[in-house]
Amino acid sequence: MNISGGCKQRSSIFNKYLRILFIGCFVTVIAACPTPIMFPNSLNPSKTYSAGKGEVGGRLSETLGGDFKIGITDEIQVSGIAYPINDILSLTMYEAGIQINTSPHEKDKYLHIFGIGAGTYVQTKTDASGNNQTNFVYEGYYPGFTLINHISINFPLRLYEFEGRYNCFGDGCPRSIGAEPLQRYQGAAFVSEMDWCFDWTHLGLRIALSVPMQFWESANPQPVIILPSAAYAMYYKW
Prior knowledge:
Elements lengths: L2 H30 L2 E3 L16 E7 L3 E8 L4 E11 L4 E11 L8 E15 L6 E18 L2 E4 L2 E11 L14 E18 L3 E15 L6 E3 L2 E9 L1
């Protein structure tokens, strides 16, 4: 009697059902979540751009958004994002930031880039006046290294601190006459990320995967859930 073979088969079946259960729970959480937030991936190039150099292009996650980065000095660059999360629900995210490279040099293999920025995540409600809105600021550290020519990998780590408001309906809404049905909340989250960068003279390709971890949120009748996200982008460089 092959006991080990039977155990392996049962273990395989158990792991299969466990994966199905995990996927089902994940889908249920997302479907039941009234206010999900997906912070945009950083999608940084392998190095900050020198003065006058930069890139502009499009990023794709759930929908297509715009992205640019321009060098102000040899050490400092600015960036901006305009990103519609969902066209049907009119979810839009805007973000602007500054990145600083402590030692910009073409021969550098290891990167040490720091950044700070701010943005707004807006969801326009079609069935009531007002917006679901999150204003956030972040600080980031973007270490990375060059693998081979034209290919590098970054490991951005950003700390988001956000404050927002949203429309609510039901028992959690204020009932006083004249009061707007809005609730406010504050929170913070770490967003770790991995960026694969493929760079040539006038073309840049990026692949990014971020895994946020929210560690604090104020009392909130409509909890916010921050979701992982993947993104792909193509840039024209000059």
